[in-house]
Amino acid sequence: MSEILLEVKDLVIHYFTDGEEACAVNGLSFDLAPQEVIGFVGETGAGKTTTALGIMGLVPNPPGRVLNGEIIFQGKDLLKASEAEMRKIRGEKITMIFQDPMTSLNPVLTVGDQIAEVVLLHNKMSKKQAMARAMEMLEMVGIPGARCSEYPHQFSGGMKQRVVIAIALACNPELLIADEPTTALDVTIQAQVLDLMRKLKEDLKTSLIMITHDLGVVAEICDKVAVIYAGEVVESGTLKDIFTDHRHPYTEGLFASIPDLDEDVDRLHVIKGLMPSPTDLPTGCKFHPRCPYATERCASERPKPVHLSDTHMVLCPRAGDGGAQKA
Prior knowledge:
Helix 4 packs parallel to helix 6. By secondary structure, the protein is an alpha/beta fold. It has helices spanning 48-56, 83-89, 101-104, 111-122, 127-140, 157-169, 187-204, 215-221, 239-245, 249-256, 296-300, 317-321; strands at residues 6-17, 20-32, 37-41, 64-73, 76-77, 94-97, 175-179, 207-212, 224-229, 232-238, 306-307, 313-314.
């Protein structure tokens, strides 16, 4: 098997609405090896979900359009694949868990029918065999197979998320994209779902893209991290690179925002300002209006990637100038 399962190069996705152009993803690049887990971290509106939809071939057109880039999966550029080819890939080789399990399931079909539907779509087998596979998948995610005949409203939020995971993994995909799979769940259920996803990833040998706001989730499950801001990867590296040696001012701000139980403070640290509107992005470095270290150069000159090591990249001139060195 190739050392790289998925490689995204200079991906650009914009939305065109009411005479405005929203620049959602702007030259984003990353790669993923087989059985590897990458975490996408960033604020709402950073372009994380749009990137995932681009990989799945699900960017709504109109209003969205992929303007540039390559998405190489197992050596094939998915942006050049036909819709018929993408339908074969989706659900079988690449699957996605969407943000809200409450709305991801069809309320008028039993959970067994919904899992079996995916199995039948990608495998030559009888309805009886597909239903047996559905029961097996429910058991795998910790739900009794006998509950196949029940409807989504008969399950709790955490159980629904397990059903969605069962649907996503029913055909043993090689890549799973999880879009904030723990956001709507309480802390105890979040931990259970993360443990489940980690176990299934190891058992099924699936690569994983984990989209999240929560750096705790990243620390728990990811091998490497891509910090995304205004549609760009501003810093990427291994878990150790990002957690112990982060250099981009935005990444610094994210980590500084995490409460420290050992410190007695009146207010939590926040990153000043707001994420820029994708219809009106700043010139130069897109983070410079919020950056405590910004110079005139940052406002006029688009930063180039600085490679601190084979694994660690920072999109900030301070890293190259030595100004971002850790004390």
